[in-house]
Amino acid sequence: MSHHGKISKLLHDKEFPHLKDNNKANQRLKDLQLCMLRIQQGMWHRKRRGIIVFEGFDAAGKGGSIRRLVEALDPRGYKVHPIGPPEGDEQEKHYLYRFWTSLPSPGTLAIFDRSWYGRVLVEKVANLTAKERVQEAYKEINQFEKMLTDDGIEIVKIFLAIDKREQLKRFEERLMDPYKQWKITPDDIKARAQWKEYVVAADEMLEKTDNKSAPWHLVAANDKDYTRIEVLKIVTKHLKLHQEWMDNLSQKAGVSSLEAALKLMGLKKDALR
């Protein structure tokens, strides 16, 4: 399905989605976080790998969504990669190099707070990369993701969209709060002047890199509670087979003997003595 103009259409809608019942939001969040924990356990047992990619407008809530996504997880089973401009020897290598070196180990999740899509978003809008290289990047990214999914890695891609007025509100909150000032940079403020160009670039990105094996999920993010729950719904739905596998295993293990449990680990029944 083509996403051409999808972000533009969302931003022109008068009403962004909001939670209808905020009183139930916390319980819904906890329920989804429990699902996420089961997914993590299933992936660990099966030695499967997953990647979750977050892109979106500045101050759209990527960090807050990631925190809620991993809040109930075992920290040994995931790693969050905050992506900024390439540094040091990364600047002399292909832009995908640092992502190859950050792929998840068997049984774990890799979460990217911004990603390889910087080549066709920030670098494109700020004219940091030649136009022909940007056009080549769409093909390179699709090939990169296909190699990953062909190798068994599951990819969930999420784009968080807020409108320009909501972004201004969040920028002002961050600038006035000394505990949040670290979240905003001069580049973030300067980028507002290129808002329209960024929307066009994001729409083109969704259109050219939305694939069956690694589809994009666009989330309207003006309401933070709605956003966080929606992100968890998307990820848990995409990875639900791992939860189902874990639930089936737990039911079997519940009636298992200690001897059988040790046997599954390759140990004898007197191993605990």
Major β-sheet strand ordering = 2-3-1-4-5
- What is the count of helical runs? 12
Indicate the CATH architecture. 3-Layer(aba) Sandwich
The overall number of domains is 1
* Biggest sheet details: 5 strands, parallel
Please state the overall shape, judged from the principal axes of the Cα atoms.
globular
Alpha-carbon Rg, integer: 21 Å
Give the distance, in angstroms, between the N- and C-terminal Cα atoms. Answer: 59 Å
Helix and strand element order: HHEHEHEHHEHHHEHHH
Average pLDDT metric: 92
Q: Any idea what the CATH superfamily is called?
A: P-loop containing nucleotide triphosphate hydrolases
Helix content: 40-55%
CATH topology group? Rossmann fold
Proportion of residues in extended strands: 5-15%
Structural class: alpha/beta
Taking pLDDT < 50 over at least 5 consecutive residues as the criterion, the unreliable ranges are none
| Total strands | 5
CATH class: Alpha Beta
Outline of the structure:
With 273 residues, the chain is α/β, with parallel strands linked by helices. Helices cover 50% and strands 12% of the residues. It has a single domain, classed as P-loop containing nucleotide triphosphate hydrolases (Rossmann fold, 3-Layer(aba) Sandwich), CATH 3.40.50.300.
Question: Can you offer a commentary on this structure?
Answer:
It is built from twelve helices and five strands. It is α/β, with parallel strands linked by helices and 273 residues long. The chain has helices at 6-12, 25-46, 62-70, 97-100, 122-125, 131-150, 164-176, 186-191, 195-209, 224-238, 240-254, 258-264, and strands at 49-56, 78-82, 109-113, 153-161, 216-220. The termini are far apart. The protein has a single domain, classed as Rossmann fold (3-Layer(aba) Sandwich).
